[in-house]
Amino acid sequence: MITPKATSIFRTPHIPHGIYDDLMADCDTSFWDKQGFPFKKRRTQRKTWLFIGHYSPELICGFAIVDAGMISTAFSYYYSFKDNVFEETKTTIPFGFPSDFNPNLNSKWKLGDYSIETINNAIKCSFKGKKYQIEIELFNNENGVSIVAPSKEERPFNFTYKNQLLSSKATVISSKSKYETQGNFGSIDFTKGFPPRYIKWNWLSFIGETESKIKIACNLVDLFNENMENVLWLNDKKVLLSAATFTVQEPLDTSQWKITTKDGILNCTNNPLGARSENLNAFILKSNFTQTFGTIEGSILLDGKLEKFTAVGVAEEHIALW
After folding, report:
1. How many domains does the chain fold into?
2. pLDDT of residue 25
């Protein structure tokens, strides 16, 4: 069940876990950030990131800035279906954000040459490097979901906001080519909270169309956030999904992934065309993830009717000690 929109619930000792309609705009965590001895939870436990995806039939883009407390990272990448070209950039900066960095989705994020900011209701991502420059602009709407999930190891909660099928435009300029696409291809993953020190998850995010021309999108995760963030978008309608099962084998970037939900609504195959991988070992923080990009095909079962769909998007396996 989706609970009506809430404004702020993070400034008290008692956090009501649940799935909330739309964006919980005020996610001030200062009540929790200041706790902890000898080191405050702001640096040792709180993790915050903003991942923006653009999944079009011509171009897949990923753009993220991550504040992991003592370590901050950012990356961008793109893949052109037409030219079969993949390029990526990344940076890692210790203590990349100040101790009072307490962002909402609409805050200004800047790490090195990477920036995300909201101007006139448009979220704009920008990176300019030697290999290429990339800009993604997308417009958030009121059809997302906010999830407040329990954490473990006596950590208070984990919050995430997901939205899909957003109007977006992506532009990539390299030394050899220029790519530009626009449409309802935008995806938001804004997460802020206190996840367990050890985590492992599988994640799927895609945008596509059913055989009857219904716009479809999905956010699906297993092994994290109590399976609370599993949502299917069908045009303007949101459908909550049950727990998911990811059947994955090595190598992750060339093998098909089989993904189903226990309620029988979603059954699909992820077909990677490549991947962005990273193995970060920064003593106090270890993060090993592979994010594949490619096509997804399968079927959905709604109201007793089975319908096929095709989509593009990303799937991820992430193991971290942080």
Report:
1. 1
2. 82
| H or E element at residue 31 | helix 30-33
Q: How confident is the model at residue 6 (pLDDT cuts 50, 70, 90)?
A: confident
In a domain, residue 223? The reply is: yes
Q: Are the CB atoms for 36 and 194 separated by under 8 Å?
A: no
The string over 142-157, giving b where at least 16 C-beta atoms fall within 10 Å of a residue's C-beta and e elsewhere, is ebbbbbbbebeeebbb
Query: Is 1 a member of any domain?
Result: no
Domain that holds residue 251: 18-321
126-154 confidence digits (pLDDT tens):
999 999 999 999 999 999 999 999 999 88
Q: Above pLDDT 90, what percent of the chain?
A: 88
Residue 2 lies in a domain: no
d(CA 12, CA 32): 9
Closest CA to 320 of 49, 105, 87: 49
Q: What's the predicted TM-score (pTM) here?
A: 0.96
Instruction: Give the domain CATH number at 170.
Output: 2.40.370.10
Q: Enumerate residues 6+ apart whose C-beta is below 8 A from 56.
A: 170, 181, 182, 183, 185, 312
